[in-house]
Amino acid sequence: MLSKLRYPILLVHGMGFRDYKHICYWGRIPKTLEQMGCRVFFGNQDSNADIETNGHHLAQRINKIIEETGAEKVNIIAHSKGGLDSRYAISIFGAGDKVASLTTISTPHHGSKTVDKLIKLPKFLIKFGCFCADCWFRILGDKNPNTYNSINSFTTTAASRFNEKVIDYEGIYYQSYAFVMKKPSSDAFMWLTNMVVNKIEGENDGLLAPDAVKWGVFKGIYRGVDNRGISHCDEVDMRRRPLSKDPAKGVSDIVDVYKDIVLGLKKIGL
Description:
Layout: E1 9-12, H1 29-35, E2 40-42, H2 51-69, E3 74-79, H3 81-91, E4 99-105, H4 113-118, H5 123-140, H6 147-152, H7 156-165, E5 173-179, H8 191-201, H9 210-213, E6 217-222, H10 254-267
Parallel strand pairs: 1-2, 1-3, 3-4, 4-5, 5-6
Helix pairs in contact: 2-3
């Protein structure tokens, strides 16, 4: 059964990745949504630019999508920092009247207590690491990488200032989702960060705890159906396959979460 939405979907990636044609950040998700009758577009913003730079880009991107499709608005689904970039585009760069909804997947709306502690490391070490990251992402295609500013925007203090400045736009439906791993060994890429964040903030997806990502209508914490749980990488289908073969009640395939998002938006006329 087709579940065509009223408005196109704009997928906005998080930090550390780009929207490549042949190596998609979103795995099987775009194709799944297209099979449901959705028109799917990508943010194409820089990997590691700061929120202001990416927010400006996304505002322009939204205008182009509306011009191309003739649609009045778009539905944004954003992962991680992409949610902050999107909020900035909406509230600061004038895209608010062109957005019907913003769904955020593990976006650090309230910052990270873990980053609060890590940012206290010697500044020269942090800046050197960020400089190396910027060099790498320029090679990959970023025009204005600014890893240092991006990381600093994840502190709880910066998040508080951000939320005071970037006010939700009236008429837009905001909703958010949280995910958690059940054990460090659940994800080879996230095992260490999961342990660190767990010690400081409790259960998490390898980067963020649920309390950090709640915004608008909070849709709950997704844990998966088995002992693996769902990591920050799993949230965007990095492995390109179901999380579990277990048909039990719960999330066995991350694409099902995105199907539910579409069905929910369709139900409220978006």
